[in-house]
Write a structure and sequence with these properties.
The chain is α+β, with helices and mostly antiparallel strands and 332 residues long. Helices cover 47% and strands 16% of the residues. The strands form 3 sheets. Strands 2-9-4-7 form a 4-stranded antiparallel sheet, with helices on one face. It has a 3-stranded mixed sheet with strand order 1-3-8. It has a two-stranded antiparallel ribbon with strand order 5-6. Helix 9 packs antiparallel against helix 10. The N terminus is likely disordered.
């Protein structure tokens, strides 16, 4: 199933303009790809972009065009937006999410979006869009992959406090000023620096969101641990090693959000939790059964016994056989 990601209010108009057909049946569905800043501006009926690889758009300048067909589209650009007073209903899988307050969303090249043609728009805010080539010669090109929120799902948007909104607005003003100024040898450096700063603040605000929503997050952490136990205890569920995506699907969140949530609450990623559970299960079997190390490895889901040996030694600094001998000696 495709990853149905966040959507920006203005992109609803994009869908309609690219279809160019007001009479299309709402029962139809189409896929649209947007590959350049010029395509983006043309679709939104905006003036020619000031830069071929970067654009910033004030929502108040957009025409209110409503799409007439359910659409999934692919935007092969980076897109970051902050919306206030948003009227936006999004869906993925069996769930729908209704956003009617300020939020910030992140979109990376190649992701696909599903939008409800009956949703309206965001009146206040802005959206910045840039081609990967715009940052390719900068350190940000390598750094941007570390921001896991580009892979969060629609219900994992960043909700900003009033103070945070003001900080983001100020960065947006700087970006807009550079965008509207005459291009010189420093323009791209300045804009990339503003984008870098925007992402640093976004990471900080997401960390705050994990903390302020702790009362809601703690039950999710407990549920994850229950699912992890169930994975090993219920043989019908288990097929191979447990994967982060397996648990994320059952908790209705993205893999990255689950891992970041667990790290904020426990100090360890989802993968580290899984590995810790694997080692504990291996220790139990080594201590209480006569199964060989190879049999234990296969029972836990490893394809090769050597994989269990490497992980076990990495986590405990001794091999499975050394651990078994140690347990046997302790019983004497």
């Amino acid at each position: 199933m495709p990853c149905l990601q966040k959507v920006h209010g203005i992109l609803l108009k994009l869908v309609y303009h690219l279809t160019g057909n007001k009479s299309m049946s709402t029962e139809e569905s189409i896929l649209i790809r947007v590959n350049s800043i010029a395509d983006y501006h043309e679709a939104l009926q905006l003036p020619k972009p000031q830069h071929p690889l970067f654009s910033i758009t004030d929502f108040s300048e957009n025409k209110h065009i409503h799409p007439a067909v359910e659409t999934t589209f692919q935007l092969n650009l980076y897109c970051i937006s902050i919306k206030e007073d948003a009227q936006c209903v999004l869906g993925y899988g069996p769930h729908q999410y209704d956003f009617r307050e300020g939020l910030m969303t992140f979109f990376k090249p190649g992701q696909t979006i599903s939008v409800d043609p009956d949703t309206a728009h965001a009146e206040v805010g802005y959206s910045l869009v840039f081609h990967p080539d715009f940052i390719r010669t900068y350190d940000l090109a390598n750094k941007i992959g570390s921001y896991s929120f580009f892979d969060y799902e629609v219900n994992e948007a960043l909700f900003l406090s009033d103070r945070e909104k003001e900080q983001i607005r100020n960065i947006g003003k700087g970006l807009l000023s550079e965008y509207k100024s005459a291009i010189d040898n420093y323009s791209q450096d300045a804009i990339v620096s503003f984008i870098d700063l925007l992402l640093v603040y976004s990471q900080r605000f997401y960390n705050r969101q994990f903390i302020t929503r702790k009362v809601h997050n703690v039950p999710l952490v407990s549920r994850f641990e229950q699912l992890l136990d169930q994975y090993f205890n219920d043989g019908t569920e288990r097929s191979g090693l447990p994967q982060v995506g397996y648990f994320a699907d059952r908790l209705n969140m993205s893999k990255n959000y689950l891992s970041d949530l667990l790290r904020s609450q426990t100090g360890e990623s989802a993968q580290n939790h899984i590995q810790h559970k694997l080692i504990e299960k291996a220790k139990d079997l080594l201590s209480r059964s006569e199964l060989s190390v190879a049999e234990i490895a296969y029972q836990l889901g490893f394809e090769q016994p050597q994989s269990l040996n490497r992980l076990f030694k990495k986590k405990t600094e001794i091999s499975p056989l050394e651990f078994r001998r140690k347990m046997s000696f302790n019983k004497l």
